[in-house]
């Protein structure tokens, strides 16, 4: 990941700067939309001043880079199937509907363990949860060839197991960032993780066809799984939770009701679902689209799919730096998040809309590739938008916020891939299968996020006591 992130995190000490509101103000603000309990808290700190991230840039940078490295491997083990599906489908006799089920199976497990991962990371910290997650999905990846030799159903079960492991990771990774990195640097840190995910797509899409053509698709699963186990060994030695960071003791109740009735949270959740519907559909089906619609072979489709991912790394890095700069120069954090999320929705909408109107394209046509590149790359602005929003609301409960939100994002992956496979088999139309549904959901996600999201930190513990 060394060259993928291009970010130098120069960390400044974070100072407590909020004051508690008066009791009268609390009573007045408890009404939301005339019916719901108000959850915005104007000023109380989420954690005590002494628990703010310390000024330890070298140690903090190492943690962020190691977490981002896990994200690289996570995404490699997710996109590898989008390449391997081509030779495997030919060998196994799978049709488009079968491919849709297989492509979506990883998201079944991914969705199932998000809340569990958030709970465990909140209770016990991010290090142990992330270590277990990477070890689990890496072992499951290495079991895939054996599972495929038994039956399609057993292979699907192995992919579900990969998803179970991957589902534990996002909350643990975000908790590490939320507790180690101060607000003034958070957009850059989250964008670093986003660059890690995108770099994983690049690495997976470039390496998978090479390994498959040289050694067979089985070797791809073995080698990718081994890489995850190698990372786990490094993390065991070098990773650690920040000393003094808040965790929830086993006897301490988690304020679930206060969290779940927060309007800001649901603004993030809906935006996450809508954004990931298109994001995951494009991630998993682009190589097949390039192969079937534009006539590229296995290596050619994978190499071209890398182009949007390379651009997305640059966009994620640039958006994170620019977001922190705007916030540092006086723009309030809510406006920063909404600005970048608006870009992350509307440019992809425009590009996919143009792609949907092109109709049948000539094999080897350049225009669809250009439109896909701009659409996918601009979506990376979301790392300075909704994907940074989880940590804004609460550092202490960031893992749970991320878990709730990512559960819905994973469900979007399940639905979008299954739907795309079904529609391709029924109609053969890429517009109906992927482009038009993604546009519709992007618009819905933008409207809800703009309406509900507010980056003001929330003290859920205080609300629960009331």
Automatic annotation (TrEMBL):
Residues 63-457 form the Major facilitator superfamily (MFS) profile domain. InterPro entries: MFS, MFS_dom, MFS_Na/Anion_cotransporter, MFS_trans_sf. The chain crosses the membrane at residues 101-122, 129-148, 218-237, 339-359, 365-387, 399-422, 434-453. It holds the Pfam family MFS_1. Gene3D superfamilies: MFS general substrate transporter like domains. Keywords: Membrane, Symport, Transmembrane, Transmembrane helix, Transport. It is found in: Membrane. GO terms for cellular component: membrane. It is a multi-pass membrane protein. One of its GO terms (molecular function) is symporter activity. This is PHT4 protein. It comes from Symbiodinium pilosum.
